[in-house]
Structure prediction request, 404 residues.
Amino acid sequence: MRKLKTSRQPEILDAAMAIADERGLDALSMRAVAERVGVTPMALYGYFRNKDELLDALVGRLLGELTPGDPGRTWQERLEAVAWGARRLAHRHPALVPLLLSRPSVTPDAVRLVDLLYQALIDAGVPDADVPRVERLLSTFVLGFAVSEVNGRFTDDSGAARARRGADLPAHRRLAEHLAPDDWDAEFAADLTDLMRIIRPV
Amino acid sequence: MRKLKTSRQPEILDAAMAIADERGLDALSMRAVAERVGVTPMALYGYFRNKDELLDALVGRLLGELTPGDPGRTWQERLEAVAWGARRLAHRHPALVPLLLSRPSVTPDAVRLVDLLYQALIDAGVPDADVPRVERLLSTFVLGFAVSEVNGRFTDDSGAARARRGADLPAHRRLAEHLAPDDWDAEFAADLTDLMRIIRPV
DNA sequence: GTAGACTGCTCTACACTGTAGACTGAGGCC
DNA sequence: GGCCTCAGTCTACAGTGTAGAGCAGTCTAC
Prediction:
């Protein structure tokens, strides 16, 4: 069986996504997917060569959900629309977010999206030679932010506690009242505003 | 056995790190660590409550290797020193990098490092209320960049190939000659320069 | 000097994982 | 009828994390 079947691929990916959403990435086993599809685990191997390929396809499907911003808008509005879209996506499927940073996404959907980002940066006046780099900078930050959020890298052990604990943390003490934000939307928005200043200094 | 032993923890972490470096994160099993330490798998559970705790400790050890920049330097030099240090660390232990983004790091070493970053940002004139956010922005980018690098998110399927393939990728075609950089050090340096402009607009 | 507690470890076992390999039964085509 | 392909099953293997019981040696108290 060298050639893979495609007929039921979408159905399988639906099942996988549902499991990840409901019970987390750890619960996403071939057996679990198979059971949900109503089939034997080994039947999945007719549609995906192995689990990694299934996960790759899942990333593709995920990025496919990312809708590009209306091309009529300004470059800044388009960039921010994609950034917020990515973050909303991350909140909708938190368990799958870590996959985004670990698997290169080369599905047609994803590439088309990158093209739109390139165009926005070109429109913003970024020199051609810098456009791909700045796109990577932005997407790296956005994905990193999303991963950090869903993994609790930001929220776990609020800095406020740290400030109280350590005697030799002068900066923490000085910043005590600002350490633990409660509005991550606002933080993300502020970060985006800062990053836009990189693209076109005001 | 509620209380954990600490005597051989460093030895165990050494073994775990060596395995990850030599054979990758997937090979980092409790059995493999135990064998390397010269002990039965279950003996490890006297030192770490479970595998997750062992991995957390590994992250702590990793961040402990990050040396803070010389406090005599300018805020910019200090920030960049930590950023480059983090990236070097990532290249030294690629398999462990993904852990950095997924586990909140609250070891004393790590917190002390964050304190130094806070201080650098304060010295740079960032308003107190913004300092923790900007620190998160920077660290998120640096870690995200490192993760992307070691996971091949950047390099896999060079953009040049994409540019040739798609007919409806105008920006890709225009940028064809700039899509695939070969000097990631330079890219990282340029990114850092851009980010420094966020902190103190020139 | 001996009883008992504590320490550090081993052994066995269980429920799970991804997946290779061989097989079965149904449908279409000559 | 004979044959081929397809879709799926069944069995099996080597590996995983870890619960629970048990065992030899050392330290302490009487």
